[in-house]
Amino acid sequence: MTFMKSAYAACLLACSTHTLAQQESSDVTWSLGIGAISSDQGYVDVGTETNIVPIVGIQYGNFSLLGPRASYKIFTSDQFEISAIGNLRFDGYEAADGDIFTGMEDRDMSFDAGIEAEIDTSFGEFGLGLVHDVTSTHKGFELSASYGVPFMFENGRVMPYVAANYQSEDLADYYFGVQQNEATSSRAFYQLDATTNIEIGIGSDWMFNNKHYIKADISYASYGSDIKDSPLVDKSGEAQILVGYAYVF
């Protein structure tokens, strides 16, 4: 099964962890739930896939874990925060996922780790992040910058945002390239350079009675030209919808 892309999912989990942390009533807060992610990565003839994933969360002091993402706050103030982060990258595919992958080697998920900074201002929230593959899967890195404007409501918030995600040559080529030994008459050898994807979306977080957490998000990432030109891709970007529920103990 083709996995959903992870750059935006990691951002969503960061916002989710922050919201759940605000609700903590003891030294340790636990949460448990389920989520669904529907995504079309643009691979030829693969289409939209929906994955159901469990949500397990722990919040303890500066440390937080929510699903496949962990973070530890290194520095925090009223408007500025720096964290060490680690998260699973769910990109990839198996040869059985579609005819376009026949004869290709599987592309696996990775575990990426790095650092991120968040800045809250009177005119919006800015974010910067840098992660690198620590599992020697794609052996690349991703640098992200984002800007969003939160709208606060009684039980939650909604935040439209825009982001730019720079993927290194190793990262982009691993998931969208075709190696020499994989080339055929209908699938040419193709090697990518570094590329930048531009993403827009709306994220929302809701908490009811300090126990029931709901998340609903939608996004679209426009691929950089190197990904768009890949023989594995027939769309210009990826659309994604995420919904989830967690009970906070």
Key phrases:
mainly beta, 13 strands, twelve-stranded antiparallel beta barrel, about 10% helix, about 50% strand, about 250 residues
Query: Count of DSSP E strands?
Result: 13
* Estimated share of beta-strand residues: over 45%
- Rg over alpha carbons: 18 Å
List the total number of helices: 3
Low-pLDDT ranges: 1-14
Alpha-carbon distance between the termini?
33 Å
- Estimated helix fraction: 10-25%
Give the strand line-up of the largest sheet: 1-2-3-4-5-6-7-8-10-11-12-13
Mean pLDDT: 89
User: What gross morphology would you assign?
Assistant: globular
Major pleated sheet = 12 strands, antiparallel, barrel
Protein structure class: mainly beta
* Element order: H for helix, E for strand: HEEEEEEEEEEHEEHE
Signal peptide: 1-21
Organism: Pseudoalteromonas aurantia
Subcellular location: Cell outer membrane
Protein name: MipA/OmpV family protein
